[in-house]
Amino acid sequence: MRVKLTLQATKPATLLPLNYNHAVASLIYETLGQASTEFAARLHDEGFTSDGRSFKLFTFSRLNVRRSRVKENQLLLEDPTITLQISSPLAEFIEHFVTGLFQSESFNIAGSRFTLQQAETLPLPTFTERMSFRCLSPITESVRDEEGGTRFLSPEDKWSEIMRRNLLRKYNALHGHAPSDDRLSWTWDQAYLAEANRRGRRASALIDIRGIKIRGWLAPFTVEGSRELIEIGYEAGFGARNSMGFGMAEE
Predict the structure, then answer these.
(1) Per DSSP, what are the bridge partners of residue 2?
(2) How far apart are CA 186 and CA 224, in angstroms?
(3) Extents of the domains making up the chain
(4) Interval 195-212: pLDDT, tens
(5) Which CATH architecture has domain 130-250?
(6) Which residues of the chain carry a pLDDT beneath 70?
(7) In whole angstroms, what is the distance from residue 189 CA to residue 197 CA?
(8) CATH number for the segment(s) 2-122
(9) What is the pLDDT of residues 17-36, one digit of tens each?
(10) Residue 58 near residue 29, CB atoms below 8 Å
């Protein structure tokens, strides 16, 4: 399920960091904690495990701002209204999050205060065996390089099997068993990437989260195969680092 929040800054000319992912993740955990400190702590500290990996099974979009500009390495809100989408396949997550929303008088994002103007749940799409999406937050995956470091994948790499394994683990972490159909192929929109390159625009974002720089991609993509895996990707996030604001997409 997805929740779309409309928030309004309490002060004019509110400033936010350009790299706000960690601050938004903190807002989500704080809101969950308003309803259940036990659930928020368990999700943060343990998550849901599969194949030795831990997953938080939620993701969120970039902040959608109406009007803003960069001022001294910060984002100055020239319009106080922002929107944010949060998604999770966990009924318990959504229940606690919505409860926490209405128990909070205001919300803190990196030291700036916001009030809730609206919260709405968004309907799920009809999942089919071939679906095309656009990114609401960057999608990232990485592999170990020859020196033992981390190399973030680019659209020229082969994503299908890495994404398939990632979604299989998430599905198993949520349901405790494998899906009946485990097929998945992944294709980036090459025409979009070529046009972005021709215009000199970056189709990626480099985000700094507490000193760690993460490269993610914002191009449209198509997935084919298991409806179960496509659905878990839509609700929990595609790729890695979903709970830090990566991997959210919409039709």
Answers:
(1) 87, 122
(2) 7
(3) 2-122, 130-250
(4) 998 998 889 999 999 999
(5) 2-Layer Sandwich (3.30)
(6) none
(7) 13
(8) 3.30.70.1890
(9) 999 999 999 999 999 999 99
(10) no
